[in-house]
């Protein structure tokens, strides 16, 4: 019994002395990806504004979060992904009956980030009262509206952490037919969304939903991208870039988010 007590004490001491990994820890990623993460973060730090980054390995559970991952930034068009999730699940429950026109509008939201399609569906299916109350259940627990702007899909503050949870909800929680549909759509986006996560390169088979706008009060740009890369969508990547740049802010943010994904994944997948 005494020996057991000594062993237990030793275990407790060892646990107490084990360092706790910081929020941005990369130790569960392989060495190559750890080095890529360090380069990507250094690049992000050298760029204008703030960039929230969340990288997740769905196979090992490893997660990297930048210091800005919890910073509230305008979501722009990324909530269109949550809208599609919500509509599909409401249709399953019988709460709504999606028409062929509705499904075409959903395709347009995901494919080219069509604002008119989003406006129509938001209004047709209940707006804030219906969509927003369920968005947190899809992972967007940080999201909020403000009194300065309409409570509308295009005026939601959110975080890279939220977008990480949202895309992982799509990949792990949705019925298979809905997951596969969204993955196909995100892998086949129009040219206007082929940046951000898309920078991983064709070999990574990326898919993404992007959002962009000069929504800041001073007219500076926000450039966001959330999606997945790798075999069986192994990795998810969420990027929110508050450029704080007015002139050429779109181009600046597009370059920042695309380069981060390129540093992380271009040439990483062999064969």
Protein described:
- The protein is α+β, with helices and mostly antiparallel strands and 271 residues long.
- The chain has one domain (22-231, 252-265): Beta-lactamase (3-Layer(aba) Sandwich), CATH 3.40.710.
- Helix content is 44%, strand content 14%.
- It contains 9 helices and 7 strands, in the order H-H-E-E-E-H-H-H-H-E-H-H-E-E-E-H.
- The strands form 2 sheets. It has a 5-stranded antiparallel β-sheet, sandwiched between helices. It has a two-stranded antiparallel sheet with strand order 3-4.
- A hairpin with a 5-residue loop joins strand 6 (222-229) and strand 7 (235-242).
- Helix 2 (31-46) packs antiparallel against helix 9 (249-265) and helix 4 (100-112) crosses helix 5 (115-124).
- The longest helix has 17 residues, at 249-265.
- The radius of gyration is 20 Å and the shape is globular.
- It starts with a helix and ends in a 6-residue tail after the last helix.
- The relative contact order is 0.16.
